[in-house]
């Protein structure tokens, strides 16, 4: 058990008692009958810790040759970004990287107290898998909750509408059998022409539910994303310099509850010329996720409780893990951050364990200085 004192939760100063990694009680002035360890949050605002639904944990990139392959993500960067739950995935390169390597990395992070999930597949079609099928991976591998694919991008495998439907069906059935979300996480490219046209046609012509389809990088196709959200789907936007302005616009056109934000961390950001040639390659950072939330609050006057939903409750509901995490309430995992008056992250708590305390990492890692 652990007792967090003096947390500012939605304007009320409360104590949070954690037992077995879950929130047992939220109440004012909890009596410490059993003399459990305490930590004073000093009346700082607490928010649900962040859930990042799109992280290249093994590193992404490679579009500019071997020197442009982004390194794997580090535990410290995840925690400093306020993230305690994430979904790992592959991208362009599933030749030098593999689903097996992905599972190894999410299990490593899990052993360091990060709640981790993964997607099988990559940009390629047929999808790379471990068991031989997308459905099999979802059913038999605990961490895998869906599949990745690229559509409307010159780096995709140009699967046709019927192949996309069959892939969605595998995700749907795998999710049904395993009790997981079974999402088809669809990369959409800035240079893509078809955008979500194939998805809209599939939804009109088939019985596959809209919840299976999860377009990401939706800043590339704002109008289609708004249409998709208003049809009942979840659309994922990628943190970036222009994203807060896009989100402010989208939130006025579509239900807030179906909008999510992810970092694309450790994925490459290729800069293309008009011939679709790589000019240079940059990389996304996981810190961009919370930075976008701060920008929404400070520059666009979005209430912090509304802005943070994009990286907590909305994501947990989209991933069908809202019975585990995504809010600060009794019965859920004890996952939260505390912030100062300038919205900077001071503490990060994952499953009841303080991983960042007064802006210092508390955990010692293997090969930390290697």
TrEMBL record:
GO terms for molecular function: hydrolase activity, acting on carbon-nitrogen (but not peptide) bonds. SUPFAM superfamilies: Composite domain of metallo-dependent hydrolases, Metallo-dependent hydrolases. PANTHER family: COLLAPSIN RESPONSE MEDIATOR PROTEIN (PTHR11647:SF1), HYDRANTOINASE/DIHYDROPYRIMIDINASE FAMILY MEMBER (PTHR11647). This is Beta-aspartyl-dipeptidase (Metallo-type). The lineage of its organism: Bacteria, Bacillati, Bacillota, Tissierellia, Ezakiella.
